[in-house]
Design a protein that fits this description.
By secondary structure, the protein is an alpha/beta fold. The chain folds into 3 domains: 30-389, Rossmann fold (3-Layer(aba) Sandwich), CATH 3.40.50; 411-613, Thiamin diphosphate (ThDP)-binding fold, Pyr/PP domains (Rossmann fold), CATH 3.40.50.970; 627-753, Rossmann fold (3-Layer(aba) Sandwich). The chain is built from 25 helices and 19 strands. Strand 7 (455-459), helix 15 and strand 8 (484-486) form a beta-alpha-beta unit. Helix 2 (41-65) packs antiparallel against helix 3 (88-96) and helix 3 (88-96) packs parallel to helix 4. The chain starts with 29 loop residues before the first helix and ends with a helix. The structure holds thiamine diphosphate (TPP) and magnesium ion (MG). Thiamine diphosphate binds at residues 107-109, 188-190, 218-221, 252, 254-256, 325.
């Protein structure tokens, strides 16, 4: 399909201009907001209380860190202490301005975001919903007050690593999340959630659920590569309805100690950067982040733009953290008392208290009583949390992987025929019923997209071109650009947005053209997509398939021929699949799409043009089940992906020497079918693993170790691995030939192991 916009050689002299970025435009005050009916006294009081809650919460951590909380004399807080005292107006102002159903992503300095998000979400619940959500008894008096106390308790439990914590103590303060109330997670990787927020927003737009995503991020995060990738991803012209994400830079002037202005950036305001991304300068604005009402006003307008299909929006809220980066930081080594005092004069809570008094909502005495009451609530919650149960150590693995799939979904989720641009036709079989491996890939994707409209496909060049290897050719003609689209060359954002979209209800298939580029994504793959479920206490699923390819033998050398599967199998939380036949690639890919976990699906470039029998009928192959490709009695040879046919050829070669090879293709690397392999090795007494990766640390080592652990006493010889040299893949044909396992090399190893 040709592109919508032709690119012609038009060279017109002119100047590039950008939409200006307004700064500090808010001129309102509480009194006027109340008079205009934009706020009620009750709203104002609640916002004041939530700011107080955040401050008291953070002050309690200071006390606990010093071991000075009298009711708990032995308790010393362990874990990170990134406090947001001074920044309360940003958390409360911004979250008060979005709907309870909207999402947020947060940062390592996110206690305030967590306190505010769930508090506002609880305010929007009915009594019945609140009872169900909190688990409080039905006859609870002052339910709303008690529910808020309960929320403080659960937040403190998470910080103290307790079972009652929002993430059951798996995440702690830096990875707190509450998916039930739209909190998609704090993130201890600076910038780690910017693409997740973008993907969640893309999903909201595609699911047409009217929600927006508020991405809270630091000024330091704005300098991380993923920020650029995510900003560009969000502004793409092809998202015609806009991407409803508000990037809110909570600029507290410093990273850890590096200062944004005058040191580690070249701009006065980070919001200026919006000018580089689209014609609207991302609707960027600079906001007084010490003024709750200014933040609220800006975020309300931003959310409105997002809901009108005009997102994304970039807001920079200027604020200040009164403490250091953490409690171990000597902040006076990089800033002055004068600077701190200047910001203290702008204290968000003091400012808002004055507004409350001016607006007739509270008297000074009542405000003081509110402060004392909140302090006591936090103290109560702290004692209760400290005395609550630790997680059970026998349940250390709980929550890592989802046990569920989307096998049984209602027919209403199927793609209606009317939504297809052209009717879908199955791949033509040859007289034996065989198709190319790459056609089996496309067929699996098409079938799953038909079956479930939440499945989308994107990656570099996957649309019109069909991917670098033609494996997705033809899909855009059927499903259109809404569901099959080219991504920018932003590998990290491809995975990060996929993870975000998956967290809020889509089932993305994303493509990383060569596995070599997975290194570009390792935070998003290894720290985000893989870990989210466990860190967040088993409360979210990331049903995403990362399709990628391995290769070798084509002279593409060090950065386009690697076999990096072990980089992925090392990370708990990922499933890894590496099929070797057309039949398997279809059945396994369909199962991977339905799996509720993040699956790295490794296709082999050399196999794309191999044919194999592949029924048109519906079938899936369960992840984690290997297959015996050839039965034998003398030795077990384990090989996957392209090494499987290599090993089978070797088995043929040694058959002439009277050696009977049992060849196993595990198909899924994680979880590995150890039962099948160990059962075979118990029978044959010998194990050889063939791997295309460099030998040291290759996945073959894992196969060897886990097998020997099971059946060492049955083994007649030490296990062996035939793998590549411990070098990056070389280009020169003789070197590359020497580097890769061949049937001859495998046959030789088999003979040696069998003493022939
Ligand atoms: C990718 C990454 N690099 C470095 C760190 C260490 N680190 C933790 S917080 C932080 C500062 C982040 O600054 P900013 O984004 O402005 O957030 P703030 O701490 O000011 O809230 C750094 C460098 C990290 N956690 N992740
Ligand atoms: Mg900062």
């Amino acid at each position: 399909m040709p592109k919508d916009v032709p690119v012609l050689p038009e060279f017109v002299p002119a100047e590039i201009t950008a939409k200006p970025v307004p700064t500090f435009t808010y001129r309102g005050c509480l009194k006027r907001e109340l008079e205009a009916g934009r706020l009620t006294q009750d709203d104002a009081l609640r916002m004041f209380r939530y700011m107080l809650a955040i401050r008291c919460f953070e002050e309690m951590i200071v006390t606990l860190k010093g071991g000075r909380f009298a009711p708990l004399p032995g308790l010393r807080f362990i874990g990170a202490t990134h406090l947001s005292i001074g920044q309360e107006a940003v958390a409360v102002g911004s979250i008060s301005a979005i709907d309870a159903k909207d999402y947020i992503t947060s940062t390592h300095r996110g206690h305030g975001h967590s306190v505010a998000k769930t508090a506002f979400a609880m305010d929007a619940m009915s009594d019945q919903e609140l009872l169900e959500y909190t688990g409080l008894p039905a006859d609870t008096e002052n339910l709303r007050d008690q529910a808020f106390n309960h929320h403080l308790y659960r937040t403190l439990c998470e910080l103290l690593g307790k079972e009652d914590g929002y993430c059951h103590g798996r995440g702690g303060g830096m990875h707190i999340a509450d998916f039930h109330t739209g909190h998609l997670g704090a993130n201890a990787i600076v910038g780690g959630s910017i693409a997740i927020a973008t993907g969640a927003a893309m999903a909201c737009q595609k699911l047409a659920n009217g929600r927006v995503v508020l991405c809270l991020m630091g000024d330091g995060a704005a300098n991380n590569g993923i920020c650029h990738e995510a900003f560009n991803f969000a502004v793409q012209d092809q998202f015609k309805e806009g991407c409803p994400v508000i990037f809110l830079i909570e600029n507290n002037q410093y990273g850890m100690t590096g200062q944004s202005v005058g040191e580690v950036t070249g701009v006065r305001y980070l919001a200026q950067r919006g000018m580089g991304y689209n014609e609207e300068s991302m609707h960027a604005e600079v906001v007084d982040g010490m003024n709750l009402l200014a933040v609220r006003d800006a975020v309300q307008r931003a959310a409105e733009l997002c809901r009108q299909g005009k997102g994304p929006v970039l807001l920079e809220c200027l604020t200040y953290r009164y403490y250091g980066h953490s409690l171990s930081d000597n902040r006076m080594s990089y800033r002055t008392k004068e600077e701190e005092n200047a910001w203290l004069q702008k204290d968000p809570i003091e400012q808002f208290q004055c507004e409350l008094v001016d607006g007739g909502v509270l008297t000074q005495e009542q405000a003081a009583a509110e402060r004392e009451a909140m302090k006591q609530r936090v103290e109560w919650a702290t004692v209760a949390a400290a005395n609550s149960a630790d997680p059970d150590i026998r349940e250390i693995t709980r929550g890592l992987l989802a046990e569920t799939t989307s096998d049984d979904i209602p027919a209403s989720l199927a793609t209606p025929e009317s939504a297809l641009l052209t009717p879908y036709k199955k791949v033509k079989r040859d007289s034996e019923g065989a198709v190319l491996y790459r056609h089996a890939v496309a067929e699996a994707i098409a079938e799953e997209m038909l079956r479930d409209k939440r499945v989308i496909l994107y990656g570099e060049d996957v649309a019109d071109y069909g991917g670098a290897f033609g494996a997705t050719r033809g899909l855009i003609e059927v499903f259109g650009r809404e569901r099959v689209f080219n991504a920018p060359i932003s590998e990290a954002a491809i995975i990060g947005t996929g993870a975000g979209a998956a967290m809020v209800g889509m089932r993305p298939i994303v493509e990383i053209m060569y596995i070599d580029f997975i290194f570009m994504t390792m935070d998003q793959t290894g720290n985000q997509a893989a870990k989210a479920r466990y860190m967040f206490g088993g409360k979210c699923s990331v049903p995403m398939v990362i399709r990628t390819t391995i290769g070798g033998g084509k002279g593409y050398a060090g950065q386009h021929s690697q076999s990096l599967e072990a980089v992925c199998t090392q990370v708990p939380g990922l499933k890894v699949v590496a099929p070797s036949t057309a039949y398997d690639v279809k059945g396994l890919l369909k199962a991977a799409v339905r799996d509720d976990n993040c699956v790295v699906f490794i296709e082999h470039q050399n196999l794309y043009t191999e044919k194999g029998v592949c029924p048109e009928e519906e079938y899936t192959i369960p992840l984690g089940q290997g297959i015996v490709r050839r039965e034998g009695t003398d030795i077990t040879v384990v090989a996957y992906s392209y090494m499987a046919p290599v090993a089978l050829q070797a088995a043929e070669m040694v058959a002439g020497d009277g050696i009977s090879v049992e060849m196993i293709d595990p198909r899924t690397l994680r979880p590995l079918d150890v039962d099948l392999i160990a059962g075979s090795v118990s029978k044959t007494g010998r194990l050889l693993v063939v791997c295309q990766a460099p030998k040291f640390g290759c996945f073959g080592e894992t196969i060897v170790y886990t097998t020997q652990e099971r059946c060492f006493s049955d083994m007649k010889a030490p296990a062996r691995i035939v793998a590549a040299y411990d070098v990056p893949p070389p280009m020169a044909a003789p070197l590359e030939r020497e580097n890769l396992p061949t049937p001859e090399k495998v046959a030789q190893a088999i003979r040696e192991l069998c003493g022939r």
